[in-house]
Amino acid sequence: MIVLTGPEDDSRPELKLTDCVLERSERNGIVAIVDEDGDWDDVIEGVNLSLINCTINNAVNPINDCGVKLGDWHRNADPFHLIENEVLIQSTVVEHCGFHGLYFRFCIGTYDIKNDSEDESNYSENGWEPNFDDPPWRPEGLGCGIFFDNSFPEYHGQRFRVTINIEDTHADENTWDGIRIYNSDGETNIKDCFILDNEQCGIFYDFSGDPLLVTIEGCIIQDNDWEGVIARKGSGHFVAILINDNQFIRNAINPADDHGGEEWSCAQIHLKGPLGLGINNVMAAENQLSEIKNNIIYGGEEGDHGITGILLNDHMVGVVNRLPGIVEIRNNIVYNADMNGLHLFEYQLQEFQQVNIGPFVYNNVIYGNLNGIFVSDNCPQNNLNWIQNNIIMGNATLGIDYNAAGNPTFGFNGFSDNGDGDDDVDGCQIDQNSVQDDPLFVNEDAGEEDFHLLYDSPMINEGNQGVDFKDNDGSYNDIGAFGGQSGGNFTSEGFEDYCVIPDEDDFNNDNYTLKYDTYWMLGDKYVDHSKVLTITAGATVIMLTDVQLQIEGTLVAVGDNGWDSGERILFKPNLEDIDLDEENAFIPSSKQHKGLYFYEAENNRLEYFRIWGSDQYGIKSKKTTSFTDFENVRCDHNESDGFYIYGSSTQGYTDVEVIDCDFWYNGSDGIAVSGNKELASIFGGTAKYNDHYGLYVYNHAVQYVVDFISEKNDSYGFSLNNADVFEITDVRSINNGNCGFRFHNDTSFLLGCHALDNDKNGIYCSYSSEPELDDCRIANNGYNGVDYNGNTAEIKLLSYSSRVNIDNGSNDIWDEDVDPGEPPDECLLFSYIPTPIMNPIEGAGNYWGDIENDDPEDWFDCFKPGGDPRVEYENIMDYATFTGASEGKHTESIEYENAAKRLYESARRYEREGEYRRSITLYIRILEDYPESAVAFLTPKHLSVCWWRSGQDISDLISYIERFECPEEASILEDEIFFTLNRIFPFKNVILIRYNSKYITHLKQNSDI
Q1: pTM exceeds 0.90 for this model
Q2: Exposure on the CB side of residue 569, measured as CA atoms within 13 A
């Protein structure tokens, strides 16, 4: 129909067709004539051909020869003539041709055959013309979808350098092969193709002298009568072929038909010849081994099985001083073959130059075949342990049938139910590292096979524990196709990674352990009453959409070695590549799970545990009677609260400790606690960037909060509603979008707390709130010049019954830019009512002022304000107020006080950074060298806390205090030290009793003291 001949200027003929239809030709659709008149004087050098969205031929108006034919296809010249083409055939259909769909003979150059639109590229149903006899050697009635033919009996090593890229293309129902590449000498990539129902092979590949890399990847190769893929190499050179991530389904189903196939030599994947890295390799990819990796190779249901799954046939036995090709067979699932899962026939397993050599058969599932692995008697002994980490199960005759010499030993494999149940191997040995037990697949039902390992499979972490064999999450090798560094990458089938927690409703038959690995939770799971679920360090649980884990028994999930190692425990949605350090990290609702729910659970322990991506709470705990050691836990990026602890009127919590936990980027509160008294204690940790409160406590829910930071939350940093928290120590509420501390009907005691740089008040009290402050710092809170209803004050009192108790404490309450104007931009204290609403403020050590006008470093006395702090809109103190201050008690110089304060500030900095032992040294210096300074009276509390946090014996601290001596002028300091020691240890060594609004402390005798 279209003939390309040589132009008069000897340039290449060029043809570009887009959206064209070619039909009705007695010969070809498009053909290039190499020599038009036979005298070889006007031979063309090549063709530039581009076909975009074209259709060639149909069944009604046929083309009798080929759809496209390029090259010296006459075969009537000696020598033949090579032409170099540049071909792009995109989104084109070539079907129903009498011979081949695409036929390239004695052609070099680059060939891109691909799909780039919604319309499929299709080269199918070709080879229908039984009487076409050109060339005469061609079997009658056979045609390929795509055929590269460089065959010639006297090519004498002629190089046919060609680059072939076939992508996203169909080659179906042809009377010969779907794709046939004969005597190729170049690079070939066949990717994401469908090759179905051809009457011989899906892909036939025959190599020339020293070809380049061949890749077959992501294809579905199904129901072809002969091999799914056959690749053969006849010369002494080696070539690497990569057959990865494909599905081979029911190929080799009719090998002994009229085409002359033989059953014993037919397989779904058949490699014949030295395919792989060898001693005399001269290919470009000289360090590349051949690979058969991550393929699903399925024989079919009973009655239509393929012959063999994988067949390696080196066929050069007896050749002296040569190695076989080296082939890696990794992470494949080979099942339901009528003959062998893996068959080695005439394969050179031998020692050469003191190097053990053979195929590497690692981490496969070989299931339900006649034999799992069959090694023929033409394969010499190989001492290398080349079969490792495979599950070989349910094969009708033997797991491994080893007919070669040597009786080798193989280890780290899993065997089950081969032969009559105990016929795992013959002709070889199994060492003590192999597991002869049911692997516990997710599903073994015919037609529904799922070869993931269940969470309690005996194959988990039992493979070779060498570094090169580790799973890709860093854990030890899981025996089977989902283990090893290539484990579970079945992209064409969409299998997920690793182990699946079963679909049963609950863990109710035994106590379970999820070992170091990655698990998929596909449905809601329960841990029943009295049962224990244990999760070991390094485990990851991926929770699918709307899935929840409910604990009614006990959960022990203990990670190790900090957050930067692989030893933490992670609960997460099915998402990758989410930057959780970003404030606006997006988690689509279609991926969110429902988190972790404790209900009436007891004796749980979580450590180095992280949960994110829930559409409600990260963790919810309700009516839990005992919950200990909730330590180093992160709840972040959950739609509601990070952690919600809830009690009831009839059953509260006991001994709930939240230690060094972080709650970030949650859609509501970082941590919310509601319930009865003595519900929880919170030691250390942070709540940041949450959409509501950092820490919310309601209805008598918390006993202690110690050393906690609530920062940059959208509303309150710390909100207490009828909470009656016993003691809040060293809590910092900073840079929050509303107030630092909000008290509603609460009488908490604050010791050493900071409320700094919050958008509204540092402390906000409403409805009978009466917090007591000691050694607190309330500074730089409030908008500047935004409103005058009290939102700019450091402390805001909203109702008649609200008050703040600061007597007998040492507090800093100031602002950098307090303006005594009318009305003031900011004030230190605000109340709606002009009546007395607070206890006397002249307690020892309190500082009220304006840092801009009066440097607090110069003031260590107590001040009696000159103005009335209780008058609406009036500053509690301005510059003139200081003239009425009492003269200093301290007899030492300002330099004395400044030196002590510098030590104190350094010690506090080290304490905040966790450098407790360095802090202890500085605090002791203050007590011994500056006992009469103002900061000396603040030091005992911090010294005691640092001593405890550094892990030192408290009895040593008591011994030090008993020996402590100070000048007569500072003798009150000794009493202060003992009083503070008792007050500051509300933990295992101390019982605190509240009586008549006073805190009485008793030491509890135990082994620590």
Answers
A1: no
A2: 22
